[in-house]
Amino acid sequence: PSPNDGSVVNRISIDPELLELMEGFKLYPNPTNDFYGNWIVFEHHTDLENGEITASVYDTYGREVMNWSDKIYNNGFQLHGFTLEQLPNGIYFVRLNTPDRNKTYRVIKG
Questions:
Q1: Fewer CB under 10 Å: which end of the chain, C or N?
Q2: Is 27 within 8 Å of 94 (Cβ atoms)?
């Protein structure tokens, strides 16, 4: 449509953080460091009543160097976290999985 043809174009603006959460997960802080206790926190929304959420951490060679899991007890907003303090500084890939979605993040530990 063009501005002169009488059609209406609706435009909306969505907060990038909200969009990230709607797409699956929001992970922070990134980078993480001693100031934050090397914690990684992630948020997600689920329609599941119960299930399990898992995180696998991989180094840059693709080796799994850590894994973590927790239970999902009810639907709605979820907040989880784990620490990378036992890993050396570097770049890692964190794969988050739930029964209804998954996503991989590049995380810097410095």
A1: N
A2: yes
